[in-house]
Design brief:
This protein is an alpha/beta fold. Helix content is 41%, strand content 18%. Helix 2 links the parallel strand 4 and strand 5.
């Protein structure tokens, strides 16, 4: 079982070079990382290219997907309810991220069922779990607990990402399991999410319409 940190941000997005990030990820027990800056293999860690699309409208989302490099994991920042439903129905999207700071009803039963049908994953972003405190952290826990209820019912994939911008932000696999347990995620569920990348990347490619 290959474990993947599903989104990290090396230099120039962060302050750590990609090889240094890969080395630290290896020491944390990861086999792969998804990087928003660069790809390749370093210290035995496979680096998958990733692109994050922050779009205000569906047409901007479509434009961003079309421009995504071949072989990249396409991740879309969550928005309001209607946008998220469109995002998880888009054939070129692999992951919906950012639900920790989206509205309470931004991801509902309709979006969950559509994500399951299309094999689109929902990202569990550990950055706010680690950095926030008090009421804000509890709100994130509740968002993720709500996602888990829907995931257990509909069966859409999950990914887990540190969204590290420094090697110091990475966490070991064991620490990830512990952090996810804070909002009710079972160890087996966390390990499954950490190993979901193959299923996402092996989806049939959407048919491209040439105009």
């Amino acid at each position: 079982m290959a474990y993947t940190d599903a989104c990290v941000h090396p230099y120039p997005d962060g302050d750590t070079t990609l090889p240094r990030m890969a080395l630290e990820a290896r020491d944390c027990g990861f086999d792969r990382i998804v990087s928003t800056s660069g790809n390749g293999e370093f210290f035995g860690v496979q680096v998958i290219p990733g692109i994050v699309i922050a779009a205000a409208h569906v047409r901007d989302l479509t434009r961003g997907v079309r421009r995504a490099p071949a072989g990249a994991l396409v991740m879309v920042e969550a928005g309001e309810e209607g946008f998220n439903r469109s995002a998880v129905s888009h054939g070129g999207v692999h992951v919906l991220k950012g639900l920790s700071h989206a509205g309470k009803h931004a991801f509902d039963h309709v979006a969950a069922r559509t994500a399951a049908e299309n094999g689109v994953a929902i990202e569990i972003d550990l950055a706010p779990v680690i950095s926030l405190r008090g009421r804000e952290r509890q709100r994130v826990f509740q968002r993720y607990a709500d996602v888990l209820v829907l995931q257990r019912h509909y069966g859409f994939p999950l990914t887990v990402a540190s969204n590290a911008r420094s090697a110091l932000d990475l966490r070991t696999v064991r620490e990830v399991v512990g952090l996810c347990s804070l909002f009710g995620m079972e160890e087996a569920e966390t390990l499954s999410a950490l190993s979901s990348l193959d299923r996402l990347m092996e989806r049939p490619e959407p048919v491209q319409v040439v105009e």
